[in-house]
Design a protein that fits this description.
Helix content: over 70%
Number of helices: 2
Radius of gyration: 18 Å
Distance between the termini: 32 Å
Number of strands: 0
Order of helices and strands: HH
Largest sheet: none
């Protein structure tokens, strides 16, 4: 996920500074959205793993 955020920054900055075509901003936004979706999925998965299933006793 950190590399997707880095890719987002690199593509966006390259397009905004004129080093790459303006369409590359879309690539940067796509990578940024993918990084946020991955972060949300990992957070959801981590929270789900911490919550005991209904009808079970918590470990410990």
């Amino acid at each position: 996920m950190p590399f997707r955020l880095l890719t987002c920054a690199v593509f966006t900055l390259a397009a905004l500074t004129g080093r790459a075509p303006g369409a590359f901003v879309g690539v940067g936004l796509w990578e940024g959205a993918g990084a946020l979706a991955t972060a949300a999925a990992l957070r959801y998965d981590r929270r789900r793993a911490e919550t005991p299933a209904p009808g079970t006793l918590p470990a410990g």
